[in-house]
Amino acid sequence: MEQRVESMGHRAWGRVHGAERRGCRVEGEEQHIIRAFVAKTRTRNKEQNYKHMKAFIFAAGKGTRLRPFTLNKPKALVEILGKPLIMHTMEALQQAGADHMIINIHHLGEQIIEFLEKTPLPGIRVSISDERSHLLDTGGALKKAAHMLQDNQPFFAVNADVVTNLDLKALMKYHNKHKPLATMAVKKRKSSRYLLINHNNQLTGWKNSHTGEQIIAGGTENKNLHEAAFSGIQVIHPEIFKHLPREEAFPIIPWYLSLAKRHTLLTWNHDHSFWFDVGTPEKLNQARQHLKKINAP
Q: Is the CB of residue 60 less than 8 Å from the CB of residue 159?
């Protein structure tokens, strides 16, 4: 089914690919492509040379720590400066060159679909990876959406509940220069969990600062390691999907640590950027106040 709509002076074609709505049985991935916008001003020459870039947005969290804001809406639709978190994320990704965004949903996910269907998104194509039947954790989310990310080009993977001015273009440039399986943005900040990193910026281990638990990836250099907290933003090459575990639901970090034994996974520091994880009402308020301050006339 293809329908034509008009939005913000651009002609747009919205397409929903052969997956029924929730409640119907669908074999494999239940996927909806919300809409694909084509700018009228793009010339044929530019169209031929245009290089598409994808991004995966983690938006399936239950948002339990952010209650009461998430009692009746998903965390990705909680607003800062009158705009939902997911729109802040999508706009930043678009400015960095991403034009096809795959978004996973779970808690009140139909609200995210409805929001995206009615919101003008010039220049952005959106696909949904539907986890409403059961949550798959971060690694499982990527595994479920892997077939939508398999084009041999690195893609961004970003948490929807992060607010930052991190330079996404610089992160992608660093990744493309060194060509690891993944490049994780990190920052030296107070956290309960830290990545352990060697002098070559390679992921080497993980540490829980509260319990003292520590994991070192076997076969990696474990001398003179330094600690930094993962920022929930990374660039991944689809080559990584050749090394997926058998489990359906699993977190990213243990998977990455198992890969670090034989493969290169890098970190990229952004200490000079501001960064907020808006997972609690207090942190949400901090992010709101900061953005209000820097956007004041």
A: no
The pLDDT tens digits of the residues spanning 77-109 come to 888 888 898 998 999 999 999 999 999 998 887
Architecture label for domain 1-163: Alpha-Beta Complex (3.90)
The whole model's pTM is what? 0.81
Beta-bridge partners for 234: 157, 184
Give Dmax over CA atoms of the chain in angstroms.
Answer: 59
Residue 223, exposed/middle/buried by CB under 10 A (0-12, 13-18, 19+)? exposed
Q: How far apart are CA 185 and CA 273, in angstroms?
A: 11
Q: What is the pLDDT of residues 260-294, one digit of tens each?
A: 989 999 999 999 888 888 777 877 777 778 887 78
The CATH H-level superfamily of 166-273 is Spore Coat Polysaccharide Biosynthesis Protein SpsA; Chain A (3.90.550.10)
* Residue in the structure block whose two tokens are 């600062």: 209
Helix (H, G, I), strand (E, B) or coil at 62: coil
Rg (C-alpha) for the chain, rounded Å, is 19
Query: Of the candidates 237, 238, 241, 244, which has an alpha carbon nearest to the alpha carbon of residue 258?
Result: 244
- The residue ranges of every structural domain in the chain are 1-163, 166-273
User: What whole-number distance in Å separates Cα of residue 108 and Cα of residue 71?
Assistant: 9
Between the alpha carbon of residue 271 and those of residues 92, 164, 235, 281, the distances in Å are 18, 11, 18, 24
